Amino acid sequence: MNLLFAINQKFTDLLCSCIRSIVKNGGADHYDTYILHSDLQAEDKTRINLTAGECMTCHYITVDESIFEGFPESNRYPRQIYYRLAAPLLLPKDIDRILYLDVDLVVINSLQELYNTDFEGNYYVACSHVKEILTKINQLRLGVDEVVPYINTGVMVMNLTALRESLTIEQIKETAQKKMHTFLLPDQDLLTVMHGERIKLVDTMRYNLSDRMLSIYNANPKNEKRDLQWVRENAVIIHYYGKNKPWKDGYSGFLGTFYQHCD
Could you point out which of 38, 171, 205, 245 has its C-alpha 20 to 30 Å from the C-alpha of 220? Predict the structure, then answer.
């Protein structure tokens, strides 16, 4: 199984926590893990390799940051968020598919079904965290002609073979520069503008579950309540996106227990 992360040095702790959860629960015999970075040091790599153990081989790819000069970024959204969009051009050419994961998540069940999902001609397999009305609002905000899904880019299976056929760094730059004045979440906005019509959606409650999504689902009286036991048996990825994170003070939520058990 091919895995992809894109980090800077300050996210090393979270990467190690995520890797521990994958080694424990991910369901594959072996992982080839590609780490796009610009500042990891030898001691960082040693620590990551020790965490990964024998069932995971880590491949470190140093990215020239100057490639992404002029891309919108902030402290919350560093330049590394764009590495995943350019990944088909940065990774070895013999890889046909890869599962990209943010580091602020944990894996609690097998990744196999998600990883092997049929692309059906699409570029990405991913989840959306927004309802229909917000999808239409994002369509208008970004100037997208069609109603396309607005995905969370923290979990994505990428069809590298298909993406390489048309993707260029220049295309990413030009689109970012043209649309940056409309961006709220730069990487997600950019992916929507560029590839929104080539995304296959899968079940958010299984593959990109957050405290917020669980609360919204359970608040709907039409839905049968899903408790922690349901999560343990059915969810695959718990994603602590946003500011509500169990390793920070003030965390409020039910899903932090899965982080504690994997760390």
Answer: 245
Domain limits for position 112: 2-206
Residue 246: φ, ψ to 5°: -70, -15
Answer whether residue 231 is part of any domain: no
Name the band, by pLDDT with cuts 50, 70 and 90, for residue 145. Answer: low
Q: What is the CATH number of the domain that holds 16?
A: 3.90.550.10
pTM value is 0.92
Write out pLDDT tens, residues 60-94. Answer: 999 998 888 877 777 767 777 789 999 999 999 99
Rounded Cα distance between 106 and 21, Å, is 6
Chain-centre distance of CA 206, in angstroms? 14
Alpha carbons within 13 A on the beta-carbon side of 228: 6
**Per-residue model confidence as pLDDT tens digits over 226-257:** 999 999 999 999 999 989 999 999 999 999 99
Looking at residue 130, the DSSP 8-state letter turns out to be S
Q: Which bin fits 63, alpha (ψ -120 to 50), beta or left (φ > 0)?
A: beta
Q: Give the DSSP letter string of 133-201.
A: HHHHHHHHHHT-SS----EEEEEEEEEHHHHHTT--HHHHHHHHHHHGGG-SSHHHHHHHHHHGGGEEE
88 within domain boundaries? yes
Q: Structurally, how many domains does the chain consist of? A: 1
Q: Tell me the β-bridge partners of 127.
A: 152
